[in-house]
Structure formats: structure tokens, C-alpha cells
Amino acid sequence: MQTGEIKEESFSMEQKTIVEAVIDPRRARFPRCIVWTPLPIISWFIPFIGHLGICREDGVILDFAGPYFVSVDNFAFGAVARYLPLDRSKIPTLAVPWDESLRKSTVEFQHKPYNLLTCNCHSFVASCLNNLADNGRGEWNVVKLAAWVFFKGKWVDKKAILRSFSPLFVLILVGFLIGGSIFFIVWLVFSLALTGWFLFATFCFKSLIQH
Q: What is the pLDDT of residues 156-191, one digit of tens each?
């Protein structure tokens, strides 16, 4: 496994032969895919929010895992639960090679602090996809990515579904037994506040969230 600084040669565009990788969850290889796994606590309350990564053409996962740190082939917060293959032919104004787009965003985010609300793993993936467009002016943002993966993403297996949703059901059961209606009010307020922030910051003040 590799973590930390990404060497330029890892993204060399000068190779004349590229071995076409295939999706292989056992080896954590998801070429040209967005990948998702649940986050502790946050995903228990809001199951469509999780940790995102994006994969190189050889299937290796890159994810913005902390301040000034892009992880390579070591997906933070556990194994991939969902993945979404990306068809390059359906991405408009494809201007640069796939891995070159990821390399540019990786270098950029290695100099950025991590903030759950303004500069997070979704920001990194959106940046990678935006770099594919002319002048890096794509239309990807954190809300669009979250919705796209939640509705279109493929589950790795049935265990991944259980791992993603079982904490939510346990939380609801325990919360109801202990707190009753108060728990549901707190849960609703927390969920609406966090979801509302991302919607508000993304569409009303676009400069608040990195992408």
C-alpha cells in the first residue's frame, strides 16, 4: 500500500502501453470509478453522506484523507462499499487525459487543509472531474456527486449494504428506546442542518466549498 506524497512518475503520460484494468473489489481496483464508503457517526445519521475517492485508470484509489494529504491505494474509513464507473465518452468537453486530471488535483490538494464543511473528499473528487473539462471549468460539485453516487452507485456486495445501513437501524432503535420523540427531533435537526449547509453553500455561495 502507498500513502502520502504522490510521485510524478506514478502518473507518467509517456508510457506507450497501458494495461486495461478491470474492476476487482477483492484487490480494491476500480479503474475510472468514483468509490464510496460510509463515515463513522455521520453516515449513521445521514446514510447518503460518506467518504469519496476516485480511481486512476489502473484502478488505484486516490482520496483526500486529511489536511495536506491525498492517500494512494489505502482508502480511508474502510473498504469500498459502492462504486460508480465513469464513461469518459459521456463526460462533456474532455480536454485532458484521465490520470493527468487526477494528478493535477492531487498536487493541489496536497497543499490544502481538510475541513468537513468546506474542503473535503467530495471537493477533491469534484476537482478531478472538473479538470477533465476545458480550462478546468466543469460543473461538478459536492452535492451533485453525493446524489449521483447515492442513486447510481453499485454495491460491491450484500455485506457492503449491511455495513452501510445496519448502524442507522441500530441508532434508530436505541435512540427511540432511550430518547423517544426527542431523539427523532435531534436527528431531524442535525440531518437538515448538515444537508442544508451543503445545499446553501454549493448553490448560493459557490466560493464557500472547494471544488
A: 999 999 999 999 999 999 998 998 889 999 999 999
- Distance from C-alpha of 35 to C-alpha of 157, rounded to nearest angstrom: 14
CA–CA separation, 145 and 155 (whole Å): 16
Q: How far is CA 185 from CA 175, 179, 180, 188, in A?
A: 11, 10, 9, 5
List, in sequence order, every residue forming a beta bridge with 69; answer none if it has no partner: 66
What is the tens place of the pLDDT at every residue in 61-98?
Answer: 999 999 999 999 999 999 999 999 987 665 555 556 88
Report helix, strand or coil for 26.
helix
User: Residue 31 to residues 6, 24, 59, 132: CA-CA distances in angstroms?
Assistant: 18, 9, 4, 16
Cα 148 to Cα 7: distance, rounded to the nearest angstrom: 31
All three cell numbers of 25, joined, read 473489489
Beta bridge partners of 19: none
| DSSP 3-state percent helix, strand, coil across the chain (nearest 5) | 45, 15, 40
Nearest to 37 by CA among 66, 77, 64, 10: 77
The amino acid that residue 193 corresponds to is A
Cα torsion 99, 101, 103, 109: sign: negative
pTM higher than 0.90: no
Closest among 136, 92, 102 to 34, alpha carbons compared: 102
**Whether 136 contacts 96, CB under 8 Å:** no
DSSP string, 36-57: EEEPTTHHHH-TT-EEEEEE-T
